Structures are given as C-alpha cells and as structure tokens.
C-alpha cells in the first residue's frame, strides 16, 4: 500500500469527504489539517510519501522540496492552477503532476457574478449605511445591455459567458489561444486585449497565473478602461498589478473592483484596498461550496487511483 500524504488541508477541504474515505482503500493516508510552521515541517510530512495531494496554493512545491522527498512519485493538485509547483523540477525528478480542471467552474462563475452585482449596485456600502440608520439614494449600474469582457476563456470563463448572456449582457473575450471553434461554442467574439479593455463595462479575469499573465493588467491596460467600468478578479491576484489597480481606483480611472484574490494572501491589514468604498473583497473563497469541495476532492483522488492503476489522468507536466 503506497503512502499518501495530504500535507496542507488547512483550512480543511479534504477532511470528511467521501473521496477521502475512498482514498483510504488505496493507500496508507496521512492528513494534516494544520498549516506547517516551517519549510522543514512541511517537507517532513512528505518525507516518505509516494503520493501527495496539494490542497492549498500557499504550499510551494519547489526544486528543494522535491529534492527532499526522494520517495515522491506523484503530486495531485486539488485545483486548476499549478503556479505554486515547479513543473520543470517535477519532470526532472520523474514526478507526475496532475490537476482538477473545471471542478469549481460553476461556483467561481457565480461568485464572479455576485462580485459584479455587488460593485455595480454598491451593495456593501448601501447595506452599511442602512444599518447606520441612513436611507441612501443614488444611481446604480444596470448590467443588462452592458458589455462583459472575459480575460481568459477556460471552464470558469465559459460558464460566466453563459451567465452573462443570460442576464442580457454582450460578451466578448480575449485569450492566449483563440479559435473560431471556441468562439462559436460560446457564442461570443474574440477580440484583442486592448479592444476588450476599451469596450467592456465589466472586465472579469479568468486566466491562469504564468510568467506571461503576471502583471497582465497594469497601468497601461487600466488606463484603457472606461471611467465607469468595473474589474473583477477570481483567478489569481498577481495577474493585476496591485499598485496600478489602487491608483486607478483612487484616481477615478475606473469605477470599482470586485476581488476574491490578492497578490499577498491573506491581504495585509494595512493594504489601501481595505479603505476603499468602491471595492468589494472576499477571502479567496469563490469555490467554497459543498458541491465544489466534493467534486474537487473526488477528481484529485480519481487522479491518484488512475495513476496507481497505470492510467494517469489530467497530467500537467511532461
């Protein structure tokens, strides 16, 4: 029975799932639901593991980590993004890396919609003022008839495209890999990033974090947006340049932002975003629904079972 370690189930996501019960039938499973206090402790948890499940993006699987875990043969990432994993180092050491694409698409797309609406209608600010015995009046933004620009068109972007059209928005997209087939499938138009930023009333980020997408939206890109436009990010924080975003929000270059992800997480208590009324913030929890947790856990476990059976699935490294 192979030793399978889940070193970072904190806050708990695998614990208590049906998938974890199933995994116990295929190996000797060790689950840690506290965050390791040091790199040494993190590595120590996986020292003898043949398989590891990565639950949290704060865990960094570097060349040094892989070197310190000589028994490791497979890493199952619970999530789509693998920016916390050195894929080249894993390949060099013949460690198979898999992920769980699309497992949270519905939940994350719904959360993106919630952020869009919350910012467009000033819901947190109005809620606070009503609780303070005020009765605020003022115009809000109606999304019907507006243009939704999707930066990235993976599983989440595709789901939000359907939702956006369902509430009467025109949907356009920019992606690293456009194709006529994908445009037809989603019933939208692929445009240049510059065109998207100039036309969209809501810009929603759905790209993976990579060297190419880091700081993809910076000062120049934000300056192209309408002063009335909203930007939403449920992908990865570093895709939007932090300083440029704060400057755009405080300088009136854009109207507002809805953010579930940040350059540093948790967001520091002195971060200027926390002081802005035109920003709605959530703690990287867009995918935290019971359905998503079960599906993601099951996909991560299925990847391990398939690997042990000689038929690996959702492999992301060579």
Commentary on this structure:
With 318 residues, the protein is α/β, with parallel strands linked by helices. The chain has two domains: 3-103 and 289-308, NAD(P)-binding Rossmann-like Domain (Rossmann fold), CATH 3.40.50; 105-281, Rossmann fold (3-Layer(aba) Sandwich), CATH 3.40.50. Helices cover 34% and strands 14% of the residues. The protein is built from twelve helices and twelve strands. It has a seven-stranded parallel sheet, with helices on both faces. A five-stranded parallel sheet has the order 2-1-3-4-5. Helix 5 packs across helix 7 (155-166). The model has no long low-confidence stretch (mean pLDDT 97).
Percent of residues in β-strands: 5-15%
Compute the number of structural domains. Answer: 2
Give me the CATH architecture of the largest domain, please. Answer: 3-Layer(aba) Sandwich
Taking Cα atoms only, what radius of gyration do you get, to the nearest Å?
A: 21 Å
Could you give the order of strands across the largest sheet?
A: 8-7-6-9-10-11-12
The CATH fourth-level homologous superfamily of the largest domain = NAD(P)-binding Rossmann-like Domain
In total, the number of strands is 12
End-to-end span in angstroms? 26 Å
Classify the helix fraction into a percent range. 25-40%
Give the class-level CATH name of the largest domain.
Alpha Beta
**Alpha-beta content class:** alpha/beta
In DSSP terms (H or I, runs of 4 or more residues), the helix count works out at 12
- Biggest β-sheet strands, sense, barrel: 7 strands, parallel
Categorize the overall geometry: globular
Helices and strands, in N-to-C order?
EHEHEHEHEHHEHEHEHEHEHEEH
CATH fold group of the largest domain: Rossmann fold
Q: Which blocks of ≥5 consecutive residues have pLDDT under 50?
A: none
- What integer is the average pLDDT? 97
């Amino acid at each position: 029975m192979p030793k399978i370690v889940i070193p970072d189930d904190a806050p708990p996501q695998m614990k208590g799932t049906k998938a974890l019960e199933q995994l116990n039938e295929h190996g000797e499973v060790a689950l840690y639901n506290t965050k390791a206090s040091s790199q040494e402790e993190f590595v120590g948890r996986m020292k003898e593991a043949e398989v590891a499940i990565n639950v949290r993006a704060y865990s960094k699987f570097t060349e040094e980590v892989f070197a310190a875990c000589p028994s490791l043969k497979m890493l199952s990432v619970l999530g789509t993004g693998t920016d916390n994993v050195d894929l080249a180092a894993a390949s060099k050491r013949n460690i198979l890396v898999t992920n769980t694409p699309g497992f949270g698409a519905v939940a994350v797309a719904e959360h993106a919609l919630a952020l869009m609406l919350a910012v467009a209608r000033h819901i947190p600010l109005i809620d606070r003022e009503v609780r303070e015995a005020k009765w605020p009046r003022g115009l809000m933004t109606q999304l019907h008839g507006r243009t939704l620009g999707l930066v990235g068109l993976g599983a989440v972007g595709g789901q939000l495209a359907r939702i956006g059209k369902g509430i009467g928005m025109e949907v356009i997209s920019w992606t690293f890999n456009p194709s006529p087939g994908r445009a037809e499938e989603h019933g939208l138009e692929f445009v240049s990033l510059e065109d998207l930023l100039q036309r969209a009333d809501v810009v929603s980020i759905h790209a993976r974090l990579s060297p190419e997408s880091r700081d993809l939206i910076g000062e120049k890109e934000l300056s192209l947006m309408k002063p009335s436009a909203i930007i939403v990010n449920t992908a990865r924080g570093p895709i939007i340049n932090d300083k440029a975003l704060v400057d755009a929000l405080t300088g009136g270059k854009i109207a507002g932002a809805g953010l579930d992800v940040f350059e540093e997480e948790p967001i520091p208590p002195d971060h200027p975003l926390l002081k802005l009324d035109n920003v709605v913030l959530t703690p990287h929890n867009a995918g935290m629904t019971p359905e998503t947790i079960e599906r993601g856990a099951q996909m991560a476990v299925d990847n391990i079972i398939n690997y042990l059976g000689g038929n690996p699935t959702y492999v992301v490294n060579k």
